[in-house]
Amino acid sequence: MSATSGAAAFDPWSPTFVAHPYDAYARLRAEAPVSWYEPSGQWLVSRYEDVNALLRDRRLGRTYLHRFTHEEFGRQAPPPEHEPFHVLNGNGLLDLEAPDHTRIRRLVGKAFTPRMVESLRPTVRRLAEELAGALVADGGGDLVAAVAEPLPVAVIAEMLGVPEADRGLLRPWSADITGMFELNPTEETARRAVRASVEFSDYLRALIAERRAKPGDDLVSALIAVLDAGDRLSEQEMISTCVLLLNAGHEATVNTTASGWWALFRNPAELDRLRAAPEALMPTAVEELLRYDTPLQMFERWVLDDIEVGGQLIPRGSEIALLFGSANRDPDRFADPDRLDLGRPDNPHITFGAGIHFCLGAPLARLELAESFGALLRLAPGLTLAAEPRWKPGYVIRGLESLDVTV
């Protein structure tokens, strides 16, 4: 089979594919695990072993600008009118390479510690129980709007010190910015992302100025104060870090909460198993739900030096699309991968990535998911699906539009 034909079943703009990409992934893994996909101009990599290795391979990068100009790399520079988005995105940890990535991650890590995350548990539990309680009081409703979306946004807002009155701004800004992460975004998507980038950056710039004048017990104040061997975060790096914490830090939680409950409703024996022993099973249940329906289906990297993957030569200047959702269902790594097993003992999923770009917010996402599922299991023990949900049109960041439930 040629490098292109294996991608025939891959159609990220198809609602049917987005709703269930796993049959197409199985075909890719079996027939052409490294496939050229002309519509997006990328090499699709679908097997766990390859994806896991390429996440750690320093011949690839999230950016190429630390080594090449756009022209040297054979790529066209983005339009000048898109600059606010690219400045914001390009100064965040997710899209940087060493040495800047190393420096910023070290500095951010001094403020965003596991101890700090764990200290948030009482706050996360309180917020989760308030949201779940309101859903119960209403007799049910849309679990996405009522619980899945507001919880991680509220947690990030608390961490950053965003006043409660301003928190309604955050989710729309995030949604507009992350629209640019989809394949072949439209010019209208770019305009919305640019506008949100400007507005969010201006808001955070003002918040940083306030915290410089009057530090508080929040992450923004901690980022301002952090110092290591004479290095500080620049204001733009702080802004980009805060935006990344919101965007990456809540999308995984929102989408895993919704798709996780949808998976549980479709697997009632596993839901009964979780209801019978929620505390004992929750740690492995969270990991399995993150694996089973991966919230970030694709992670892209640039080829900085010629490489060979699965016998296929991929030249410098190419873009590789690592299919996380496929890797997490690879039978060569996971026994019976299409079965939901909340007690799965061996579960090295790559939902949070690997290598230097392993998700800094993974401990917070795990905490939020455990407390969210726990609150709903306690307060809504009879939670039931009211209507089959629809998936959002986006593929790269994949999630449900809504999830209607009764209590």
Write the layout of secondary structure elements.
Layout: H1 15-19, H2 22-31, E1 34-37, E2 42-45, H3 48-55, E3 60-61, H4 83-90, H5 100-111, H6 114-119, H7 121-137, E4 140-142, H8 143-148, H9 150-160, H10 170-178, H11 187-213, H12 219-225, H13 235-266, H14 268-276, H15 278-292, E5 298-303, E6 307-309, E7 312-314, E8 319-323, H16 324-327, H17 362-379, E9 384-385, E10 404-406
Parallel strand pairs: 2-8
Antiparallel strand pairs: 1-2, 3-5, 4-10, 5-8, 6-7, 9-10
Helix pairs in contact: 4-11, 4-13, 7-9, 7-17, 9-13, 10-11, 11-13, 13-17, 14-15, 15-17
Describe this structure in words.
By secondary structure, the protein is α+β, with helices and mostly antiparallel strands. It has a single domain (5-406), classed as Cytochrome p450 (Orthogonal Bundle), CATH 1.10.630.10. It has 17 helices and ten strands. The chain has helices at residues 15-19, 22-31, 48-55, 83-90, 100-111, 114-119, 121-137, 143-148, 150-160, 170-178, 187-213, 219-225, 235-266, 268-276, 278-292, 324-327, 362-379; strands at 34-37, 42-45, 60-61, 140-142, 298-303, 307-309, 312-314, 319-323, 384-385, 404-406. A five-stranded mixed β-sheet has the order 1-2-8-5-3. Strand 1 (34-37) and strand 2 form a beta hairpin. The longest helix has 32 residues, at 235-266. The model has no long low-confidence stretch (mean pLDDT 94).
